[in-house]
Specification:
By secondary structure, chain A is mostly helical. Chain A is 42% helix and 0% strand. The radius of gyration of chain B is 20 Å and the shape is elongated. Classes of the chains: A mainly alpha, B mainly alpha.
Chain lengths: 172, 186
């Protein structure tokens, strides 16, 4: 099947939408808009802007500089030397600024976890969640007894009773 | 001596490029403007698009003689520019279209009321066109230009001629349905 028979369209000649049918309102509107005249003086304004842009070659062209002349050999050599100098200098600058990482002098040993306990998993700060029991040292708080000021040991109860019995009921 | 000859040659070439560009402007600026206006529907924006088109041509003026069909090439450039601008711009309200169409449409022998009604009708039709899928809408809009054949529309859009025909067929069916639907809503 010929496509041009199925979907008729103008072929270098003006035709309406379908064969034998009037164009749809949409096509009429689009043709009306497409046929609107250009504003007066458009060509002059466009040409002026193009000329202005052409006179500013920096904006109009990507590379506006005149092409360098590579006729002389010493100029080529100088350019090559300049490129080599820039590349080597840049590499040396990077090399001189970047220092290799030095080995640490102190070897950090991993912390050993107490048997049966929990480790802090390497945390820098462990929050105190519970107030643990405060250990008091009685030896530190009570002063040690001095030997000269010690009181004599109290006699046993049975001996006291015997002494009082010998002294009589009034203690005489 | 050699430098002088080269300078003369460069000047002559530059002069020839400028003349070719001026010929392109005088010959195709109107067509390019109408293509731009059909998409942007704003006179100032369309003129900006025309100027941008020729500035792009200026950038590639060295390869101007390699272009086979300059008219289609220019239409393709402006088509890409206006589609890009329209994509970036906000959606135009229909009232803007009505006002612009009332301003630009030919009003010979029409009263003010008839003119306003015609502008309203065209704006509604254009709103239906905007609802079409992009591929079908582009073919339908370009087919409205008498200067462009189906082969040239295919060249502008970068598709085959059979694709142009099938898309145009679908666009006509879709727009007929949309217009019937809008009429039934009234």
């Amino acid at each position: 099947m010929n496509a041009s028979k199925q979907y008729p369209l103008k072929n270098n000649s003006r035709q309406s939408g379908r064969m034998g049918e009037p164009p749809s309102p949409a096509e009429l509107t689009l043709r009306l808009i497409a046929g609107l005249p250009a504003p007066v003086g458009l060509e002059g304004r466009v040409e002026a802007s193009v000329r202005a842009a052409a006179k500013e070659p920096g904006k109009a062209r990507l590379l506006s500089w005149p092409a360098p002349r590579w006729d002389s050999a010493w100029m080529r050599g100088a350019a090559a030397a300049a490129i080599v100098f820039v590349v080597v200098g840049g590499g040396w600058g990077v090399y001189s600024r970047v220092q290799p990482a030095q080995q640490p002098r102190v070897i950090a040993m991993p912390r050993t976890v107490a048997p049966g306990g929990f480790s802090n998993a390497g945390a820098m700060r462990t929050p105190q969640t519970l107030n643990g029991p405060v250990v008091t040292h009685p030896a530190a708080t009570v002063a040690p007894p001095v030997a000269s000021q010690t009181k004599p040991a109290r006699p046993k109860g049975r001996k006291v009773k015997a002494a009082t019995a010998a002294m009589g009921p009034n203690g005489r | 001596m050699e430098i002088a000859e080269k300078t003369v040659h460069d000047r002559a070439r530059h002069q020839a490029e400028e003349e070719a560009l001026a010929a392109l402007v005088s010959q195709y600026a109107g067509t390019i403007y109408r293509v731009a206006y059909s998409v942007l529907r704003n006179a100032a924006d369309a003129e900006d698009a025309v100027q941008e088109t020729y500035l792009r041509v200026l950038r590639h003026r060295d390869t101007l003689d390699q272009v086979r069909d300059q008219r289609v090439w220019l239409v393709r450039i402006v088509w890409n520019i206006v589609l890009d601008r329209k994509r970036r711009a906000k959606t135009r309200p229909e009232t803007d279209d009505v006002a612009e169409l009332a301003r630009v449409l030919p009003a010979a022998g029409l009263s003010a009321e008839q003119r306003a009604a015609a502008a309203q009708h065209h704006a509604q039709v254009l709103a239906c066109v905007e609802q079409l899928p992009a591929k079908e809408r582009q073919v339908l809009m370009l087919s409205a230009f008498d200067e462009l054949s189906s082969v040239e529309i295919a060249a502008v859009l970068g598709i085959t001629e059979s694709s142009v025909r099938s898309r145009l067929f679908r666009a006509r069916n879709l727009i007929a349905g949309l217009l019937n639907h809008s009429r039934s809503l009234k």
